[in-house]
Each structure stands twice: as C-alpha cells, then as structure tokens.
Amino acid sequence: MVEAAKSGATPLEGDGKRILLILGSPKVDGFCHALADAYIQGARSRDHVVRVLKLGEMAFDPVLRGGYERGQDLEADLLEAQRQVHWAQHIVLVYPIWWGGLPALLQGFFDRVFQPGFAFRFRTPQDREWEPLLGGRSADLLVTHDQTHWRYRLRQGAPGLRQMVRCILGPCGIQTRHLEEFSPMRGSTEEQRQGWLKRAEQLGSQA
C-alpha cells in the first residue's frame, strides 16, 4: 500500500523533489518507523513530495519461486511499487540489519520488483554484464543494527550495506548519496535515540 506523506501531493506538484520512502521492516512499529517519520518531516519542511511503501502492510509473496527464468505474475501491490519507483527521483530505504543482512521481506521485495526489463536488462543472452534501467535516481539509506560500527564493518564486512549499495542499487543505476547507521540499538539511551531522530530529520531536509 502506498501512503502519500503529504496530503494532496501529485507527481508535478511544486518545485520539491519526488521522494519514495521504502520502510523495509516487517514490524508494525519500532525505531525504523520513527526514523522514517523523522525523515519525512524533514523532507516536508523543504516542500518535497513524499510517498511511502510499508512492506509490512503490502500483500505479496516475497519468494521468487522459479527464479527469473520462469514467470511469476506481480501482485497488485508490487505493480504499484514499480510505478512508484519510476515516479521517484530520490529513494529512501529504512530497514534493520538482521543476521548481518537484509530482512527476508526486504530481500524478497527486491527479488520480485527489480526484475529484468524493469531495473536492468542484459544486452545479449550470453552477456554477464547488464544495462541499468533506473539511472538518474539517488538514494539515502537509514539502517539500524545492534553492533558497533567497527565490529559490523571490520569484523563482519557490513554485508547488509554492501549488498544494498554495490549489488542492488548501484547496478540498477541508483546512486547512494547518504548511508547512515544508527547503532548499537541495544542498550542505547533515550538521549541517543532522540539525537538519531534529529539526524534523520536533517537528512530529510537535505534530500
């Protein structure tokens, strides 16, 4: 389901940027939701038009059951998601790191939505490289996890960040602008969390 974070917004409204925020947590609430709300508030303060996809409220099968060699019809919510990605000039991804990587629902969203012919295309059947089809768009990543930065990046290799930037967005033509980690969540104080929310709002105002 798509939410318009600015009432009455249309794709051509005003001079603001067209922003699609994708909330990649399957939880119905939590700190990722608060970060998303703070980012939206910052973006609205600059008259940007924001639409929101909450994956936890969408109806779709996250399993790509036959790979890309066998067809799998897109559900209505995924067709709408593709329309919103095409509409957007800037994409914001807010998600938690689970087991070092993406939540299964978010991974499944990309498996199903970023299909050949939509996000990329092979030049020839034998070609190992592909042509990006979503160029001209930028992205901000707001990510939560329970590790210290040095442990997640140096000891674990930051797979949930590297995959998103280098293996999903970049090859499809989407340039990551900001990558912000909010961590460690476990044991964080209310003062820390309020500071993180202010940072998310700031990022929204800079979109």
From TrEMBL:
GO terms for molecular function: NAD(P)H dehydrogenase (quinone) activity. The keyword Lipid biosynthesis does not apply. It comes from the Bacteria. GO terms for cellular component: cytosol. InterPro entries: Flavodoxin_fold, Flavoprotein-like_sf, NAD(P)H_dehydrogenase_qn. Keywords: Oxidoreductase. Residues 184-201 have a biased composition (Basic and acidic residues). Residues 184-207 are annotated as: Disordered. Residues 17-201 form the Flavodoxin-like fold domain. SUPFAM superfamilies: Flavoproteins. Belongs to the NAD(P)H dehydrogenase (quinone) family. This is Oxidoreductase. It comes from Pseudomonas knackmussii (strain DSM 6978 / CCUG 54928 / LMG 23759 / B13).
